[in-house]
Design a protein that fits this description.
The protein is α+β, with helices and mostly antiparallel strands. The protein has three domains: 3-65, no CATH class; 79-101 and 200-356, ATP-grasp fold, B domain (D-amino Acid Aminotransferase, Chain A, domain 1, 2-Layer Sandwich); 109-195, no CATH class. 35% of the residues lie in helices and 21% in strands. The chain is built from 13 helices and 14 strands. It has helices at 3-21, 27-39, 46-52, 61-64, 70-80, 87-90, 92-101, 129-135, 177-181, 202-208, 296-307, 339-345, 352-377; strands at residues 109-113, 124-126, 143-147, 157-163, 166-169, 174-176, 192-195, 216-223, 226-236, 254-259, 264-269, 277-278, 315-323, 326-333. The protein has a seven-stranded mixed sheet. It has a seven-stranded antiparallel sheet with strand order 12-11-10-9-8-13-14, sandwiched between helices. A hairpin with a 4-residue loop joins β5 (166-169) and β6 (174-176). The longest helix has 26 residues, at 352-377.
Length: 378
């Protein structure tokens, strides 16, 4: 047996033992389920089996079949979101322009760096690196800066102040001018956007111990009858982190599954896989389970209303900040991280409700295609 095979088998057996100790199924049954899920038409990977919690004794065969893997997650995104409409989410300037025109609250733009001078509104337009450097010498602090086109927190910085030729970040780090300017030279970002920082609602800040935003991710499907919020989860900031990104627990942040009906936290994880469940905030030790998020109904209504503006995107992911002034729309994403909500809740996404929604969307699209075909014949 090669070293790679030995490592793989050792890791697998370790995961099986950890799952068994955390209330999982017998080892042989785990192996059988792993094999079945690997061989089905829409496979679930070995890592996904443990990350999602399918190993738990409470997961029945019917429940097991509702989980989807990364391949099917990508298929859903490609199937439900029209290629020509993706720019409406991926280009933050364009997305914010649409939201502003309809009166939705967004983070206040301070300046936009874009070589062709694009702007959301009347914020300062920066076209060159020299103009950015000059802007940074003004009284513009604090601010957040993020790419016009990017996701997963790439290229995002929160800056509290300038110290000589360096910049103090919200997490306490100090970076130099060259490091700060590096994202401005990365052409796929298509420019950078400066925004005023948002702060968390006092009810949330009391629990997390920080005013850094812990936003809610809403996964919304746009049907013929209107938008439907299928799943929502809370991205919980910990420590001195300036972003609420989870990244499989690498940043120390946590995730909470939300009861959509009333906005309460029903399950929390600090990492994916066996032993990842927690009940209290790691920094403050405040209880997380049962916490009712503020302004929940307002946030739900806002997401449903905003999602109607993008009918060509039938699978939408909204990040919403719950702030003292009310919910604020941070951004819209298309590429869904559908592994995350399954790992948080311990339940598969493709339940009866989602299957009915997908059938409705497909029926509507089929009727549209038939109408276009009939018109072409005439």
């Amino acid at each position: 047996m090669s070293h790679i095979s030995e490592f793989f088998m050792g890791s697998l057996l370790e995961s099986i033992r950890a799952a068994r100790a955390a209330g999982g199924k017998p080892a042989l049954l785990q192996l059988l389920e792993i094999l079945k899920l690997r061989l089905r038409q829409s496979p679930i990977g070995i890592g996904e089996y443990f990350e999602y919690g399918i190993w738990h004794a409470s997961i029945t065969p019917d429940m097991r079949d509702e989980f989807i893997g990364w391949r099917q997650s990508g298929d859903l995104d490609r199937k439900l979101n029209d290629v020509e409409c993706r720019v409406l989410a991926e280009d933050k300037l364009l997305n914010y322009m649409i939201l502003c025109s309809k009166g939705f609250p967004i983070p206040t733009p301070i300046a936009t760096y874009c070589t062709n001078g694009r702007q959301i509104g009347d914020e300062k337009a920066l076209r060159t690196h020299d103009e950015v450097r000059s802007f940074l010498k003004d009284e513009v602090y604090p601010f957040y800066v993020k790419p016009i086109s990017a996701g997963y927190g790439h290229g995002v910085l929160g800056v509290t102040a300038r110290e000589d030729e360096s910049f103090r970040l919200f997490d306490g780090r100090l970076i130099g001018l060259d490091e700060f300017m590096a994202p401005f030279s990365f052409s796929p970002y298509k420019g950078m956007l400066f925004q005023k920082p948002l702060t968390s609602h006092p009810d949330i800040a009391e629990v997390t111990g920080t005013e850094a935003v812990s936003c809610v991710r809403f996964i919304c499907l746009v049907t013929s009858a209107g938008p439907v919020i299928h799943t929502a989860f809370w991205k919980i900031t910990t420590g001195r982190n300036m972003l609420d990104n989870f990244s499989h627990g690498d940043y120390g942040n946590c995730l909470g599954a939300i009861n959509i009906g009333n906005g309460t936290i029903v399950r929390v994880i600090s990492r994916m896989g066996p032993g990842g469940q927690i009940e209290r905030h790691p920094t403050t030790q405040k209880p997380l389970l049962g916490l009712a998020l503020p302004d929940w109904d307002l946030a739900v209504d806002m997401v449903c209303s905003a999602s109607r503006q993008f009918p060509g995107l039938r699978l939408q992911n909204w990040d919403v900040a719950l702030c003292p002034e009310g919910p604020v729309l941070l951004e819209l994403n298309t590429e869904s991280e559908l592994a995350i909500p399954q790992a948080i809740s311990g339940h598969g996404l493709k339940d009866l409700r989602l299957r009915e929604i997908l059938a409705d969307i497909e029926q509507t699209r089929a009727a549209y295609r038939a109408a276009v075909a009939q018109r072409n014949l005439n």
